[in-house]
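Problem: given the chain below (269 residues), write out its structure.
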Amino acid sequence: MAGRARSVLLAALLLGGFSGGAIAAECGKTSSGFENWKASFAQEAAAQGVGRKGLSALAGASYANATINADRNQKSFKLSFDAFMKKRGASTIISKGKQMKRANAALFANIEQRYGVPAGPLIAIWGMETGFGSYMGKQNTISAITTLAYDCRRPDYFKPHAIAALKLVDKGTLTSSSVGAMHGEVGHTQFLPGNVLRYGVNGGGGGGVDLREKADALASTANFLRGHGWQPGAGYQPGQPNFAAIQGWNAASVYQQAIAAIGAAIDGG
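Solution.
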């Protein structure tokens, strides 16, 4: 969006253009309605407490064709368990994961003491999501998440995450130029913005939460699992108490099984 057009939109919003109450933003299936949708969604965002920085980031967002293409082509989740494990390089994740567990023993011990989550499933998620931080994505986060909030496929799911992303811009956790995965996930373990707000914690001392730092990302992942019912000391394989917490991480059954299997191999189970 051109700078002048962005300024006009922001001026209208900040000078009271949303004072009459938020207008429900309509979804769309192509880029043609995205700019009008942003103006409508900005009213919803402002009504939910998004401030100047967040609204500016929204005004500058672009329709993310690459995100839409990725969302329509998630074919690996339809594979069998064995095929999925092979495609995702499970044996490599297990081998390197054991090395990561040894190299970061103090960090994982601290996380387990705080949240009751052992290293295995955290390392499995870390390896599956970003190859242990080797690739965290290059898609603009605000553009990705707002595109998905606009798209008619799952707007009700992604709108709260879009609002959260704009609030994270207000807080300084994200910026309008932050990048991550295709669906707006960020950091070592690929948190959606709403989960950053709800479960993000500092894992390495100091202040703030930065999921591009492994300590924060891994501690936040453990906090997420605990928030989804993780019971310290209980098993996490299918049929065991903590598998339900893993199910909260990703909706794909084959992915859930992979996390449990890889985690058990890393933990020595």
